Amino acid sequence: MKKLSAGLLLSLVTIVSIAQSGTGNNTLLWKISGNGLENPSYLFGTIHMLCADDAVLSKNMKKIIEDCDEVYFEVDMDNIFEMVGAMGKMKMKGDTTLKELLTEAEYEKVKTYFETKGSMLPFSMLETYKPILAASTLEQGSLPCDNTAMMEQVILKEAKEYKKKIKGLETMSYQAGVLDSIPYKLQAQQLVSYIESAGKDDKDNKQMEEMFKAYKSQDLKKLEELMVETDAGMAAFTDILLYHRNQNWVAKLKRLLPEKSVLIAVGAGHLPGEKGVINLLRKEGYKVTPVENRIDLSREI
Fold this sequence. Notes:
The chain is α/β, with parallel strands linked by helices. The chain is built from 16 helices and eight strands. Helix 3 (80-86) packs parallel to helix 9 (172-178) and helix 11 packs antiparallel against helix 12.
């Protein structure tokens, strides 16, 4: 489950939810030009939770936010009505509960873990949620810090200072609905596996550490390797969580890019690889080039 959760940090926003060497291809920031565009747009890879001290914007990123016409996230981060409307989609269909999907012993183990470790929401609410979403509320404990932040929120705050329009490539309801394609029973078993291995499985802990290290060093190639290291039970759902959504986004961007200059900030796991957003945009005829995203914390603090 930790491997799945690591991927979700880079691929799926949930409602419950450094000195960086951004040179060459080691960068999270990319320029989209060519293909008849009058003005360039930009693509940035986010992570949905990281240590607050690492959630810093580079000078180039700040300038892009200031100059662009609109900022697109995976979902509209500034739409409270959409967030409220999506809450119902977080729950499993048919009034299914976690207790129905697990043995009595497994259920008690999960309940005790949530109540002991604590999460963003009470367990009484989470036991009706899709288990992957329930697991995502525990991710804060995987970080080597007490204070965490969402990279999207940092960008959102900067964008609102310049009164930029905030929009989403897809809706929160759609994101939550994507998880209905993954059997609830499988999700529940993955949640149990996560809890059983928490604090014990050095390999899983190391994978999480490697993921955060790769993000901070802006190593998309390494992030791609970590993204595909899911267990056999979840490998079949990579298309649902990543690749189909990438294709949908690029189709939408083909309509948006000729009209205005936009910043697109999506999970970094969506960027690399043959089926990643960068390569899909290039296949459509766009020139996608790396932009320096270096951060000097000694100056930025």
